[in-house]
Amino acid sequence: MAEKPLIDIRWDEDKRRKFIETLNDRLPTKRIIAQGILRNERGEVLLCQLTYKQEWDLPGGIVDKFESPAHCVARECREELGVDLPVGELLTTSWLPPYRGWDDAVAFIFDLGVAQADLKARMTLQRREISAVHWVGPADLDAHAAPYAARLIRSALAADRTAYLENGESRS
Fold first, then answer.
1. In this structure, are strands 105-114 and 90-96 parallel, antiparallel, or unpaired?
2. What is the pTM of this model?
3. Of the candidates 100, 24, 36, 97, which has an alpha carbon nearest to the alpha carbon of residue 63?
4. Beta carbons of 41 and 161 less than 8 angstroms apart
């Protein structure tokens, strides 16, 4: 005869769902950012000149609830640049500490490949968020991008494998 457990930990479905709902309400949430690195034939990276901050940044944005990071990059490029870009492999991911009033976040950086020569001319920018786009060489990133973004882009370009970073830098 099997012994009866001291505590019955089996929950009915309603109790299980209420427990998960409580955890979802109380556990911390983390902002997820998904961006892509698009290069031209000269090895320059496409940066977006944003209307709401001084520094230029990679195409992409905040991942919506229940949206994957890869789908976010594709959606943001379609909405903000007016082009469909193939989202390739994950190049790197980085934890980002709080910055200029933003809470910390995790960024996923995907490979958007090498652009066709006429891509920039075919773009239709969402002027509410993007005032211009620019091709920027790796040596000039510091003049246009936030320090963490310049580090992150250079690390992603140099990586020979997918890397996990913190604040755009290797943990090793």
1. antiparallel
2. 0.83
3. 36
4. no
Residues 6+ apart with CB under 8 A from 149: 55, 57, 58, 141, 168
Amino acid residing at 63 = V
Q: How far from 125 is each of 92, 109, 110, 145, CA to CA, in Å?
A: 26, 21, 21, 19
Name, in order, each residue with C-beta under 8 angstroms of 126's C-beta and a sequence gap of 6 or more.
79, 80, 81, 82
Task: Give the span between the Cα atoms of 128 and 80, in whole angstroms.
Answer: 9
The answer to whether 73 and 60 have CB atoms below 8 angstroms apart is yes
Residuewise pLDDT in 10s, the chain (172 residues): 667 656 656 677 888 788 888 888 888 788 999 999 999 999 999 999 999 989 999 999 999 998 999 999 999 999 999 999 999 999 999 988 888 777 889 999 999 999 999 999 999 999 999 999 999 999 999 999 999 999 999 999 987 777 676 777 776 5
